[in-house]
């Protein structure tokens, strides 16, 4: 998850906005708290990574990326090495982000997961597109 182990969850989320986006610390903290509440981690703001479950660490890592206000979120195997319960947490989060209008690119070998969260699936092998499926989630 590449969280800073010596920093709290809050500190992990505000580091980049302050350093990269030059946000004021108070503003970064407020936005980080909004993100943590969205991720259902508001009560973990002062915890350290070693105090979190795998699913919570994954959500903090996603929150850290969200703090930079990306136009597109890229996920590389977001459910790899997660048990079914944690996979369910990540699935719920990605669906929630999609509902908020976040554009996402998800690389996964887990086709069942892909079918649950994607509105478009492109299957590739060695850089060659093998097939493409578009799903109308409005009718799902």
TrEMBL record:
<dbReference type="InterPro" id="IPR027417">
    <property type="entry name" value="P-loop_NTPase"/>
</dbReference>
<dbReference type="GO" id="GO:0016887">
    <property type="term" value="F:ATP hydrolysis activity"/>
</dbReference>
<keyword id="KW-0813">Transport</keyword>
<dbReference type="InterPro" id="IPR003439">
    <property type="entry name" value="ABC_transporter-like_ATP-bd"/>
</dbReference>
<keyword id="KW-0547">Nucleotide-binding</keyword>
<dbReference type="InterPro" id="IPR050086">
    <property type="entry name" value="MetN_ABC_transporter-like"/>
</dbReference>
<feature type="domain" description="ABC transporter">
    <location>
        <begin position="2"/>
        <end position="80"/>
    </location>
</feature>
<keyword id="KW-0067">ATP-binding</keyword>
<comment type="similarity">
    <text>Belongs to the ABC transporter superfamily.</text>
</comment>
<dbReference type="InterPro" id="IPR017871">
    <property type="entry name" value="ABC_transporter-like_CS"/>
</dbReference>
<dbReference type="GO" id="GO:0005524">
    <property type="term" value="F:ATP binding"/>
</dbReference>
<protein>
    <submittedName>
        <fullName>ATP-binding cassette domain-containing protein</fullName>
    </submittedName>
</protein>
<dbReference type="Pfam" id="PF00005">
    <property type="entry name" value="ABC_tran"/>
</dbReference>
């Amino acid at each position: 998850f590449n969280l800073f182990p010596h920093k709290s969850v809050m500190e992990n989320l505000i580091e980049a906005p302050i350093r990269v986006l030059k946000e004021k610390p108070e503003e970064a903290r407020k936005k980080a708290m909004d993100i943590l509440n969205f991720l259902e981690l508001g009560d973990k703001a002062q915890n350290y990574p070693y105090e979190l479950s795998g699913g919570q660490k994954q959500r903090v890592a996603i929150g850290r990326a969200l703090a930079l206000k990306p136009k597109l979120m890229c996920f590389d195997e977001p459910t790899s090495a997660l048990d079914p319960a944690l996979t369910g947490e990540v699935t719920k989060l990605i669906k929630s982000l999609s509902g908020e209008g976040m554009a996402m690119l998800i690389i996964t070998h887990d086709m069942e997961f892909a079918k649950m969260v994607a509105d478009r699936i492109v299957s590739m092998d060695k850089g060659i597109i093998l097939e493409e499926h578009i799903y109308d989630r409005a009718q799902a």
